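Severity: low
Component: inverse-folding endpoint
Summary: output formatting inconsistent between runs
Steps to reproduce: submit the following structure tokens with default settings.
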């Protein structure tokens, strides 16, 4: 086979990395090279961002070390039996690419994952070597996110945390049954064992940093994980339950959801069609309800239908409100912040504005409208000065009245 040059490798391995959604860079330690030392930063002006066709903001060099793999996970396009063109970077090539892209203002950091080559330990060694070289040989101060391998030696995974801002270990699928069926070479207990070790190491690192100023930072942006949605028969209720458990047990920064996408030469055990992308979006919204709006997992699951699925035509908070109308309407001038956060159409910022503003005057419906994007969705669920929805909350057609209207978009609209 002809030798691939760096540009060809980049085309293959950047495309292969697009299926991993967990590449956000929030929550990292602030570092910069404004003092004349080092290269790169995790903040500030001069960082260019690109946008993928699906709208996601990408500001990292997001690649695989290699798309070759000794595993044969049914849902993975890079599985051992897949008929795809293979490529592999050396650790030095990834380092050089990262530095070259950063100096051109293309990126603010690196997201590095890999297929398994040789063994889990050998692959993890190569990943760690990239981060080590960037930090120690080139004093790189930008963002680094490393995807770690659960089967690798714990010492190697620990080294990854010393060099990376964030580490992630994918749980892959929501249920142990689905994992055994679609990724028989992976073990849920080993994955969670590695996440437990990382949680303890992050806690130890924070404790050491609090005691000793010279202590090295350890994964300051924490750890995250990803679940594939729609590759197995797990319903949304099972995914929400799993996400809640992961947040509680491992103090994760984020759980990412990735809608399964049919792949070439797919295994016969996989579904023929991808799930609706809106399903992925609704799961992210349910995740937000648990993390920022005070909803318990059971309450979010109560918004699902008889099949355990979140509705696709309305968001989970509206679905919950329509099921539990006895909690509404809510008085915007008296209700506690926790109850205002449950009003469909009110976000965290709008609620904080309402709480701050009502200290000085009683708010009318027009006042609320000025503090949020649109008051139409909110009206049936609130009481304000001069406004009471009377029987509006009990209407049988309330769902149709507050449901977002479908619009045909025009490609060349003015």
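Observed output (run 2 of 3):
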């Amino acid at each position: 086979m002809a030798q691939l040059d760096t540009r060809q490798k980049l085309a293959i391995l950047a495309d292969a990395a697009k299926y991993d959604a967990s590449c956000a860079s929030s929550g990292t330690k602030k570092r910069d090279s404004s003092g004349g030392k080092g290269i790169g930063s995790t903040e500030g002006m001069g960082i260019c961002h690109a946008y993928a066709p699906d709208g996601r903001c990408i500001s990292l060099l997001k690649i695989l070390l290699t798309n070759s793999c000794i595993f044969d996970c049914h849902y993975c396009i890079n599985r051992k039996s897949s008929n795809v063109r293979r490529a592999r970077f050396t650790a030095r090539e990834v380092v050089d690419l990262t530095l070259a892209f950063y100096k051109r203002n293309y990126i603010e950091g690196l997201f590095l994952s890999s297929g398994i080559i040789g063994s889990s330990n050998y692959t993890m060694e190569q990943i760690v070597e990239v981060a080590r070289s960037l930090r120690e040989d080139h004093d790189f101060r930008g963002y680094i996110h490393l995807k770690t391998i659960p089967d690798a030696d714990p010492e190697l995974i620990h080294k990854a945390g010393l060099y990376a801002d964030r580490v992630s270990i994918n749980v892959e699928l929501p249920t142990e049954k689905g994992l055994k069926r679609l990724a028989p070479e992976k073990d849920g207990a080993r994955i969670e064992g590695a996440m437990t070790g990382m949680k303890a190491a992050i806690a130890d690192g924070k404790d050491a940093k609090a005691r000793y100023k010279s202590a090295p930072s350890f994964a300051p942006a924490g750890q995250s994980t990803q679940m594939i949605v729609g590759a197995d028969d797990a319903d949304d209720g099972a995914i929400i339950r799993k996400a809640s458990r992961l947040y509680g047990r491992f103090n994760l920064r984020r759980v990412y959801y990735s809608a399964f996408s049919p792949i070439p030469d797919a295994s016969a055990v996989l579904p023929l069609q991808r799930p609706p992308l809106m399903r992925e979006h609704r799961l992210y919204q349910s995740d937000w309800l648990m993390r920022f709006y005070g909803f318990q997992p059971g309450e979010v699951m109560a918004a699902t239908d008889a099949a355990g699925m979140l509705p696709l035509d309305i968001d989970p908070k509206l679905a919950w409100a329509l099921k539990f109308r006895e909690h509404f309407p809510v008085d915007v001038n008296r209700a506690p912040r926790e109850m205002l956060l449950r009003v469909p159409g009110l976000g965290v910022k709008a609620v904080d504005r309402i709480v701050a503003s009502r200290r000085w005057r009683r708010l009318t419906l027009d006042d609320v409208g000025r503090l949020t994007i649109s008051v139409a969705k909110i009206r049936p669920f609130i009481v304000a000065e001069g406004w009471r929805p009377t029987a509006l909350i009990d209407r049988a057609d309330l769902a149709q009245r507050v449901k977002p209207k479908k619009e045909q978009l025009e490609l060349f609209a003015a």
